[in-house]
Design a protein that fits this description.
Layout lengths: L4 H18 L8 E6 L2 E6 L4 E6 L3 E13 L2 E4 L1 E8 L3 E8 L1 E9 L2 E6 L4 E8 L4 E4 L8 E5 L13 E5 L22 E4 L4 E4 L5 E5 L2 E11 L2 E8 L1 H5 L19 E3 H5 L5 H14 L7 E4 L14 E2 L2 E2 L1 H14 L4 E3 L6 E4 L14 E4 L1
Parallel strand pairs: 19-20, 20-23
Antiparallel strand pairs: 1-2, 2-3, 3-4, 4-5, 4-10, 6-7, 7-8, 8-9, 9-18, 10-17, 11-14, 12-13, 14-15, 15-18, 16-17, 21-22, 24-25
């Protein structure tokens, strides 16, 4: 039997590669993934990073790091040994510090457990304008019944009511948002395209990345275990609306964002009140799309020059002066008025350019 030098070298290399593969050191085996119930978990044990995806939503969490917290701070868990369990669970053992993590996909949830009570998961969550932060209705909260006031009955309508629940956490707080935001009391996302809510644990914090507005930085404690839940058909099955359709931003980038005199002053607003608030809106909130001013009910019940006022013959000088000033600050088509409910009303054939787009402008005809 003849042996050549090249043949011996080739056989030795093959043997070494086989040994390394059995020991889990091959480059190919550094990438381990499982797919189950629509979830896909991918682990790059060489880089110490994970990805969690779902077939309906794409990437949920990327650049996931496993950590353990201590009084000195947060330590990244290194030295991963990754293996599949039963073809639908992913186990990661870390050497420094020592810990064992288990990722278990369920039909509508991902269960994450760790042997350390100080376990902490950090990640990046895609959160563009299509996937927004949201406070969700939770049946664990205090049951309430939202009902309209009796004012509608005076106009021949009926009082509508909607059974619901207060949030479990910070139920005294009502949250309003302008643009892509984050908040310490918000731990859920809503995918506007799919009508699916993504729910993290209440201990989770999410923070918008300043250098990348389409990403959220997620910090998720795992005190033994935590769960990421999906709620499909959130609007139709949870909120009970007949059907869901994503708002078409190409036609209307936002709903009209409006300051209304009634909300602040009821029927006691004066011309100076309206102009002063418009000044503040123009300076502070117009860059965020807050640009409409609505002069609500009450202007028709004041003396001339005390409030933006409509006379029988049309607009008085006080209203014209205020409109001109607001036009300069907010731009055209930025003012709307509450149509007076006394006398006979009719629509002006050619609405004023100063009236809020889409609104009807009325004047008196007695």
């Amino acid at each position: 039997m003849k042996f050549t030098v090249n043949g011996l070298i080739k056989s030795s290399l093959i043997f070494i590669l086989l040994v390394l593969r059995l020991l889990g050191y091959s480059q190919t085996d550094s990438l381990v993934s499982i797919s189950h119930f629509g979830w896909t978990i991918s682990a790059d044990q060489g880089r110490g990073l994970l990805r969690i995806e779902h077939e309906s939503l794409g990437l949920l969490l990327g650049n996931i790091q496993l950590n353990l917290s201590n009084p000195e701070g947060i330590r990244i868990a290194r030295g991963w040994i990754t293996q599949k369990l039963n073809d639908h669970q992913l186990q990661i053992q870390t050497k420094n510090p020592k810990s064992t993590w288990l990722f278990n996909p369920e039909p509508k949830s991902m269960v994450i457990t760790c042997t350390s009570a100080q376990a902490l998961l950090t990640a990046e969550a895609p959160a563009s304008a299509e996937r927004v932060v949201a406070r969700l209705v939770d049946s664990r909260g205090v049951p309430v019944n939202w009902a309209a006031t009796e004012e509608i009955t005076g106009w021949g309508g009926s009082i509508a009511s909607n059974p619901s629940f207060l949030p479990v956490k910070n139920q005294e707080v009502m949250t309003f948002a302008l643009g892509q935001v984050s908040g310490t009391n918000i731990t859920s996302l809503f995918d506007r395209t799919k009508d699916i809510a993504i729910v993290f644990s209440e201990q989770t914090t999410i923070q918008r990345k300043q250098q990348h507005s389409d990403l959220l930085y997620v910090t998720m404690p795992v005190p033994g275990n935590t769960i990421i839940r999906l709620i499909p058909d959130y609007f139709t099955k949870i909120l009970g609306v007949p059907f869901y359709s994503r708002f078409d931003d190409s036609v209307f980038p936002t709903a009209p964002i409006t300051w209304c005199s009634w909300d602040a002053y009821y029927d006691d607003a004066t011309e100076s009140d309206v102009v002063r608030n418009a000044d503040w809106l123009s300076t502070n909130l117009k860059p965020y799309g807050f640009k409409y001013v609505q002069v609500d009910d009450g202007y028709d019940a004041r003396k001339v020059n005390e409030l933006i006022y409509i006379q029988k013959e049309g607009l008085d000088s006080a209203r014209k002066a205020a409109e001109a000033q607001l036009d300069n600050e907010l731009g055209p088509k930025e003012i709307s008025t509450w149509p007076a409910m006394a006398g006979k009303l009719y629509q002006v054939e050619r609405p004023s350019s100063r009236i809020m787009a889409g609104a009807k402008f009325f004047r008196w005809q007695c």
